[in-house]
Structures are given as structure tokens and as C-alpha cells.
Amino acid sequence: MTRFFEFDTLTWPAVAALPRHTPLVIPLGNGYPPDKLADALGRPAQIGLLPPLPFGWRGSGLAVPEAVLGRLVSNLLDSLRDDGFSRVFALTPAGLDIGLGVERIALPAHAAPAASLPADSDRGKAILLPIGHTEQHGYHLPLSTDTLIINAISRGVAAAAPEQAVTLPAFPYGVSTHRACFAGTLNAGGRAFEDFWLAVLDVLAARGFDRFYLLSGHGGNCSFLTNVAKYAGERQPQAFTATAWLYLSGPAGIEALEKYRRSKIGGMGHAGELETALLLHLHPELVQMAKVVDETDFVATPSYYMDWVEGGALVANPPWTDDTATGAYGAGSLATAENGRLWLAAAIAEKVGHVAEIHEQQRRRQARRQRG
Predict the structure, then answer these.
(1) Tens of pLDDT along 110-160?
(2) Which of 7, 128, 160, 335 pairs with 347 at a CA distance of 20 to 30 A?
């Protein structure tokens, strides 16, 4: 009997301990019969299922060109091979070929036909595009941390302002340029990531949507999403596309961080107090507080230091192992579920305010253009 496990619920040391012949599978969507997948892989003892891509292919409700999707998926599979795994595959619907060759398993998916994402009736709303990642978060948090948090924020915004915003499903893969340091960290590749999201925006703009907010739960995505927003401004001048540095990064968000935080500067960089608190509130069953290791000895100078809102005038990307042995930057031991609840509410309020600004920007700019 083959055992299936969810790859993104593991911590990076658990991924490091997996036998390298363990089959790992990235599905395009859901609804594939497990027994057929086990048969296709020769009935191994266990199969690791990575987070499914929620859209991007024909039949998903939001399709991009297959070559664009294929490059992104290929980069994700390469990440797993770089970690030493010898059996990595994309699981796709039958009849779909995105250029992966033997890396692809095709099975019929027993799922209802996908509705359009978003629905045509949502034209005029801001389309929220939450983008997380599958990457290491120290000894105590799962690989899915970024995706779980940004999904909760985006859903919270859509629930708080249903007439102004609608959210797409959270996309669980982004860009990590430090991925070789710790097992389990994937990388969609910067250029493939940008091309994918530009293609998504192209499709949505062609369907008549004109307000987009790219929400990132992962710091490594942010510079690339800035590029996407800039390119989109040229490609879709009739639309307003925006992004921001993560969440709790504006004046009110920073005030909420400072009001409740227990750690000093350096305690919230990565898998630190903030992300641990949010996960304790959202998914306490995935947090292993007994394994927390606080690491705050970042090589800091006045113009380059680490905290949630990265500080200083310098932009750099030194090896993570210079500053952390466990993959964490920060003081996760100081996190509480109550602070996670307060910070989630503040993050949702911050993004609701951003959505209102996106609408105002689009209305005023359209009016100015109409005046000639």
C-alpha cells in the first residue's frame, strides 16, 4: 500500500531526511485518482504530493500559453532534482502537453469543469492575486508558511470588501535565490515567474478586468512582482496594476507590529516572531514550538539589516548561511497566537485600504483620460 504525504507540511530537516528515490509529484489541479498515480509510479512505499498549481493550464479556468507554464513547472522540478531527488514529476490532465517529456504523468482528473477565474460578473472589482511559496521556514514551521498566510490575508480582504475585491486561489510557488542552502526550498525562476504573471495579467485584461493587486507572502517574490507591475503598466495601460512589500509594511501595519511585538529589531526577518505568531493563530497543528531556535545574529550595519520591513539603503543577497544555521532569522520563541490574531486583522485592514486606493486610482485616471 502506497502512503501519500503532503510535502509542504514538512519542515526542511524532514525533507532533508527523505530517501532521495522518493517520488515527488507536482499536480496541475486536483481530482486525480491516487491509485492510478501509484500504479504509474510502480507502487512505491510512499509518494510526496507537492501543492497543486491552482490555474495556468487549459481547462483550469485561467490558462496561459503552454510554453510559459512549462518553463515555470520545469524550474520547480529542477529545484527538487537539485536537492538530490531522482524521481520528480508533474501530474497533468490527459491531453495536455507543456513540454516536460518523461517528467510528466498524464491522468484523467475526476473533477468538475473549472469555472472561469475570476467570474465575468466580478468585472469592476480589484482582482487579488495572492502568491506564496514553498520554502524552508526553520526547524519549526512548514514549507507552506508563506502560502497559508497570504491566502488567509487575501481571503480576509475579499470577505471584508466583497463589493470591491475578489481573490484568486493562492499560488504556492515563487522565487528563492537562496534555495541551495536548505532542503525543500523550490524556485520558479525569476524570469519564468515574471513571464507567468505577466501572461496571467494579459489574459485577465483581455477579458475586461482592469484592477489588479499582486499580493506576496514571500519576500523573494517582491522584486520580481515589482517588475511585473512595471511591465504590466506598459502592456495594459487601460488597467491599474499594483503590488507592495509583503504585508504590514505601510504606516498602520508597521504601527501594529511595533505595538504588539515582543522581539527587538531582527526578531521578525524569516520564520521569526511574526510568521510564527500568524501560523500559531491560523494553523497551530503545523507549528512545532519545541523545535524553535532563535537566530538574531544577522551581520547588520546601518544601511543593511534584517527585520520584517528590511532596512537600510543597501540591497544585497549574501548567502543565508552567513547569518543562520537553522534557516530562521528572528525570535520565533516569542510568538503568541493572540498576537497572530491581531496582526492578521491589521494585515487585512491594510490591504482593504490598498484596494480602496486602487479603485480611486483607476477612477481618477480614467476620468482624466476621458477629459483628453
Answers:
(1) 666 678 999 999 999 999 999 999 999 999 999 999 999 999 999 999 999
(2) 7
pTM for this structure?
Answer: 0.97
pLDDT(161) > 90: yes
Range of the domain at 286: 251-345
Of 214, 246, 278, which residue sits at a domain end?
246
The domain total for the chain is 3
Tell me which residue of 83, 64, 93, 71 sits closest to 19, measured CA to CA. 83
Residue 268 grid coordinates: 521578525
Same domain, 294 and 323: yes
**Residues 79 and 58 occupy one common structural domain:** yes
pLDDT tens column, 291-327:
999 999 999 999 998 899 877 789 998 999 999 999 9
153 and 92 co-located in one domain:
no
**Residue 232 φ/ψ region, left for φ over 0, alpha for ψ in the -120 to 50 degree band, beta for the rest:** alpha
Which letter, b or e, does each residue of 229-255 get, where b requires 16 or more Cβ atoms within 10 Å of its Cβ?
A: bebbeeebeebbbbbbbbbbbbeebee
Percent of the chain exceeding pLDDT 90 equals 91
Is pLDDT of 230 > 80? yes
Q: What span, in angstroms and rounded, lies between the C-alpha atoms of 132 and 27?
A: 17
CA distance 291 to 309: 25
In this structure, the answer to whether residues 138 and 208 fall within a common structural domain is yes
Beginning with the edge strand found earlier in the chain, give each strand of the sheet holding 240-243 in spatial order. 165-167, 126-131, 211-216, 240-243
Set of cell numbers at residue 84: 538530490
Euclidean distance between the first and the last CA atom of the chain, given in angstroms as a whole number: 69
Domain presence at residue 89: yes
Q: Is residue 367 part of a domain?
A: no
